[in-house]
């Protein structure tokens, strides 16, 4: 008796439930889809809950699935990674706007690997490292000139704040190699998220590997580490299953044999990244129906959870709509699923199929384990953050809630 709806009886709504067994299963699947020796970075932005992150840091209980490393992009995520038991050395610190202050903090915590996006970024890493008597490994993030896959979210091939433009890297590389305090150790790619299918993922990875090998050879660029990014898919607030990649392992091995033949000897070391695939399917959001009303012939189901709870990254223009279930398969009728906020933008689904619902009912949103609370407009309109419950099978592991408060500390924060 510990399904999400039963847990909502105990802990109230809105309630997130994350099942760690499901996180383990996703990690096992993803490692199995990659060639032996690949490292896997968990992108904390998908879900920085320390208990969930800890599950990914620990080797599988059966001992045959490696631990993940951590991909972080802020001091908050650094704190979450450390709280989950990662060391600084386990972390890859990414992002186009790393400030000198956060670099200092990251280096102080033992972070030594940074993905860098510009000459200034590399210089900032070097300056912070020199200041601390350390040397930092910098991966150069590459914004390749072309792109192959079709995806919901594309971050490359166009002008971007991310990465070095591949075609002009040669102009700045000598300066990068001379920057005090840093060693240029390899390349980082993250061209897409949530790939449409296995073929697009394979196509993109093949292109990435070819480009990395080409750049390294043409520019005499050190390539000790190559992070080829991700794109592993998971449903988001709708029914469905994680992406399946039965051919990926073989395709990656072929591409690596062709372009980087020393890879089996660890030259270079290789890595992938994932957020949503690892965390997304572990989570369920349970919301309460506060009210059902009809306006000019249209039905509105008003929940206690809106874009403040499951934002759908709505501020980023990523539209849901979500699907909700009550338990059984009722006839669906059109209606709009909205949240409690005083803005007409608080819509989780406009004129979608909804079961018959009344005030006091509870609904569950499947596959809500990634880009949940921390991707939402948490503070907007001041409602409390949702409760988050971690379970492992039938056992409740932890119950917590994010809190925010106003601080009147007027000292400037380190920049
Ligand atoms: C967001 C992000 C990820 C995770 O993306 P998912 O689609 O959740 O797997 C991985 N790497 C980087 C650099 C990111 O910015």
Please provide a brief summary of the model:
The protein is of the alpha/beta class and 415 residues long.
Question: Tags for this entry?
Answer:
single chain; 415 residues; alpha/beta; TIM Barrel; Lyase, Ornithine Decarboxylase, Chain A, domain 1; 2 domains; 8-stranded mixed sheet; 8-stranded parallel β-barrel; 19 strands; binds pyridoxal-5'-phosphate; Ala_racemase/Decarboxylase_C
Structural features, described:
The protein has 415 residues and is α/β, with parallel strands linked by helices. It folds into two domains: 20-279, Alpha-Beta Barrel (TIM Barrel); 281-401, Lyase, Ornithine Decarboxylase, Chain A, domain 1 (Beta Barrel), CATH 2.40.37. Helix content is 26%, strand content 25%. The chain is built from ten helices and 19 strands. The strands form three sheets. Strands 1, 13, 14, 15, 16, 17, 18 and 19 form an eight-stranded mixed sheet that branches. A hairpin with a 2-residue loop joins strand 13 (283-295) and strand 14 (298-303). Bound molecules: pyridoxal-5'-phosphate. The site of pyridoxal-5'-phosphate (PLP) has 16 residues, from strand 10, strand 12 and helix 10. Residues 43, 45-46, 71, 94, 190, 193-194, 230, 232, 273-277, 370 line the site of pyridoxal-5'-phosphate (PLP). This is Type III PLP-dependent enzyme. Keywords: Pyridoxal phosphate.
């Amino acid at each position: 008796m510990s399904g999400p709806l039963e847990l909502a009886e105990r802990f109230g709504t809105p309630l997130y439930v994350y099942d760690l067994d499901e996180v383990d299963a996703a990690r096992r699947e993803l490692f199995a889809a990659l060639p032996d020796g690949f490292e896997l970075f968990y992108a904390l932005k998908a879900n920085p809950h320390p208990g969930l992150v800890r599950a990914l840091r620990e080797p599988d209980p059966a001992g045959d699935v490696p631990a993940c490393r951590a991909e972080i992009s802020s001091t908050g995520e650094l704190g979450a990674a450390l709280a989950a038991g990662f060391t600084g050395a386990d972390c890859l610190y990414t992002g186009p706007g790393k400030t000198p202050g956060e670099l200092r903090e990251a280096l102080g915590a033992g972070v030594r690997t940074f993905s860098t996006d510009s000459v200034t970024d590399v210089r900032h890493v070097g300056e912070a490292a020199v200041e601390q008597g350390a040397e930092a490994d910098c991966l150069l993030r590459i914004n390749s000139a072309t792109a192959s896959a079709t995806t919901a979210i594309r971050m490359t091939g166009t002008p971007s704040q991310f990465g070095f433009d591949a075609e002009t890297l040669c102009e700045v590389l000598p300066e990068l190699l001379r920057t005090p305090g840093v060693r240029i150790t390899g390349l980082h790619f993250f061209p897409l998220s949530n790939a449409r299918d296995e073929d697009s993922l394979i196509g993109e990875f093949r292109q990435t590997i070819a480009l990395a090998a080409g750049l390294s050879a043409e520019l005499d660029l050190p390539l000790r580490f190559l992070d080829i990014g991700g794109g592993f898919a998971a449903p988001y607030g709708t029914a469905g299953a994680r992406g399946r990649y039965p051919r990926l392992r073989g395709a990656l091995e072929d591409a690596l044999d062709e372009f980087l033949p020393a890879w089996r000897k660890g030259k270079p070391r290789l890595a992938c990244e994932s957020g949503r695939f690892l965390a997304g399917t572990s989570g369920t959001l349970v919301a309460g129906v506060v009210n059902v009303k009809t306006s000019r012939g249209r039905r509105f189901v008003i929940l206690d959870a809106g874009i403040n709870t499951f934002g759908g990254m709505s501020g980023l223009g990523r539209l849901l709509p979500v699907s909700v279930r009550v338990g059984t398969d009722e006839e669906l009728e059109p209606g709009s699923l909205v949240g409690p906020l005083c803005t007409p933008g608080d819509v989780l689904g406009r004129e979608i199929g909804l079961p018959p619902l009344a005030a006091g009912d509870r609904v569950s949103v499947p596959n809500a384990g990634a880009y949940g609370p921390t991707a939402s407009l948490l503070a907007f309109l001041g409602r409390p953050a949702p409760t988050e419950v971690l379970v492992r099978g039938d056992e409740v592991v932890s119950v917590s809630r994010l809190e925010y408060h106003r601080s009147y500390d007027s000292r400037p924060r380190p920049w």
